[in-house]
Each structure stands twice: as structure tokens, then as C-alpha cells.
Design brief:
By secondary structure, this protein is of the alpha+beta class. The strands form two sheets. Strands 1-8-5-10-3-2 form a six-stranded antiparallel β-sheet. The chain has helices at residues 2-13, 41-70, 92-109, 168-172, 231-234; strands at 33-36, 79-81, 116-128, 136-139, 146-153, 161-164, 189-191, 198-203, 208-210, 220-230. The chain is built from five helices and ten strands; from the N terminus they run αβαβαββββαββββα.
Length: 237
């Protein structure tokens, strides 16, 4: 009996005690910033018109041939991209804003930009097909650090950007979500509703796409990419 009691006391002493509360810390998060600034919309829509018309003109032959060969679908499925807007004085104000804001956001993220200078390396406007089915497949932007959009024509009836979890390891091992209507640690996709004047910034490594546009209303936006370039490369002290 004594041996049994001694054994019971020994087992009691070796029992594990778990903390009643676990401390939560969050790391490796991916930021997305947005703001509404409609003051640029009218001016930039007007300045964008010639670029979009030029793109439509360049694609007209290919669209006409497709419609002749397979049946008339108008411009369905196309996205009309402009040439670069960098250097056009009509877009200088927003280009300067994008560059300065990207610098501030990278600095806010914790990056040391002392020996770097941030440039807007790509700036272009695009418009989805009037007949619908315009879209972008999932992609990232190589050799860049900050990307984003400024919406000129958009509504609840148009396409919208969809962002995906940038962590490959997490995507490979995802479990089913309990409730996809809620944003949780299990969420792997985030979409943003858009309207004229809405601007979105995000790290260039963040995978994103545009859902299929149904062609109910015009959908046009400016896309931009920024890169932090070492001052040594630029011969800047």
C-alpha cells in the first residue's frame, strides 16, 4: 500500500502544467494601403483618352480578324494598354505623388533607404473591353518594390483587384476555411471594391489579379510600379 501511495505522489509531481493563456505575436504580415483621392480623376481621364484610343486602333486589325474568323464578339476579352505615361506632363503630378508615397511606405515598413532612391519605373493606363470579359490572371511584378493602382472609371458593376496570400508554404498546406465571409488567419484571398479616385499601394511581391469584367460599365485604371535603386548605381552621393 505504501509503495502504491508513493508511486501516486511521484506521478502527481511529474504531471505537466500548461499556461492558461498564450501570448499572441504577429509576424511576416503583408500590408496593403488605400485612400480615396478623386481630385485627379477628371484631368487624368481626359489625358488618358488619346492613349486608350491609340491602343484600340493598334488592336483593331487583330480584333476584326478574330471576329471574321470565329464570329463577331466585338472587343470582348481584350484589355487596352497604353504606352508609358512617364514623361507626359499631364501625369507628372500623380507620378511625383506615387514616387514620394512609395518612398514613405517603404520607410514605414522598416526598410533603410539611406543609400537608395525610389523611382516610378512603370506607369500606364488600361481599359477593359466594352463587351466584357476583360481580366488579368494572377501575377506579381518583378524587379520592383512597390506597386499600385489609381482607378479612373470603376463601380460595383465592374471588375476589381483580388490579392492572394504571398506565402507559398502556407498556400501549399491550407486547410478549409470555416467561414469565407470573415477575414481570419485562414484567409488566402482579399478583394477590394473600387470607385473613381481610389488608390491602392502594395508590395510588388504580392500576387494579384483582376476578376472577369462583365462589361456593364467602363473600367479604366492607372497601374504603376516603383523600384528602390542603389545610389551607387546612379552615381549619387
Amino acid at each position: 500500500m505504501k509503495k502504491k501511495k508513493a508511486k501516486a505522489r511521484k506521478q502527481k509531481k511529474t504531471q505537466l502544467s500548461f499556461p492558461q493563456k498564450l501570448n499572441l505575436e504577429q509576424y511576416f504580415s503583408c500590408p496593403i494601403w488605400w485612400a480615396d483621392e478623386p481630385s485627379f480623376v477628371d484631368k487624368l481621364n481626359k489625358a488618358s483618352d488619346p492613349y486608350i484610343e491609340a491602343s484600340k486602333k493598334n488592336l483593331k486589325e487583330a480584333i476584326d480578324k478574330r471576329n471574321k474568323d470565329f464570329g463577331n464578339k466585338g472587343d470582348m476579352g481584350h484589355v487596352f494598354h497604353s504606352t508609358t505615361l512617364i514623361g507626359d506632363p499631364n501625369f507628372k503630378q500623380i507620378q511625383d505623388y506615387i514616387g514620394a508615397t512609395s518612398h514613405n511606405l517603404l520607410n514605414e515598413m522598416g526598410f533603410d533607404l539611406t543609400n537608395y532612391q525610389v523611382f516610378t519605373t512603370e506607369l500606364w493606363v488600361q481599359e477593359f473591353a466594352k463587351k466584357g470579359a476583360g481580366h488579368h490572371t494572377l501575377h506579381t511584378h518583378w524587379n520592383g518594390h512597390m506597386s499600385g493602382f489609381y482607378f479612373l472609371k470603376a463601380s460595383e458593376k465592374t471588375s476589381m483587384p483580388l490579392f492572394e496570400d504571398p506565402r507559398p508554404g502556407n498556400v501549399m498546406n491550407l486547410l478549409p476555411e470555416k467561414d469565407k465571409s470573415k477575414i481570419t488567419y485562414a484567409t488566402s484571398q482579399i478583394n477590394y471594391k473600387v470607385k473613381p479616385g481610389r488608390m491602392i499601394f502594395f508590395p510588388s511581391y504580392l500576387p494579384h489579379q483582376y476578376i472577369v469584367d462583365m462589361g456593364y460599365e467602363p473600367f479604366r485604371f492607372i497601374h504603376f510600379n516603383c523600384q528602390a535603386i542603389p545610389k551607387g548605381v546612379l552615381n549619387v552621393v
